[in-house]
Every structure is written in C-alpha cells, then in structure tokens.
Write a structure and sequence with these properties.
Tryptophan halogenase; monooxygenase activity; two-stranded parallel ribbon; membrane; Flavin_halogenase; mainly alpha
Length: about 40
C-alpha cells in the first residue's frame, strides 16, 4: 500500500514546532507542487 501524505500537523507552538513546520514546508515547496499542507 503506497499512499501519498497530503497534510502534516505539527503539534506545539514553541521554537522546535515552528522550525519543523518551516523546514518541512520549504523542502516540499521547492520539490514539486503536490499540494502538501503543513499546519
């Protein structure tokens, strides 16, 4: 079974949470326009 991840939820608003969300979003934004959403 091979499902594509479309949404990632980062729980926590501290520095680690914001950095994780920013890194994930920037990495996937540059790769392709597959609609990955980081919340």
């Amino acid at each position: 079974m091979n499902k594509t991840i479309k949404t990632i939820a980062v729980i926590g608003g501290g520095t680690a949470g914001w950095l994780s969300a920013a890194i994930i979003a920037s990495y996937h934004q540059g790769k392709n326009g597959d609609g990955l959403k980081v919340m």
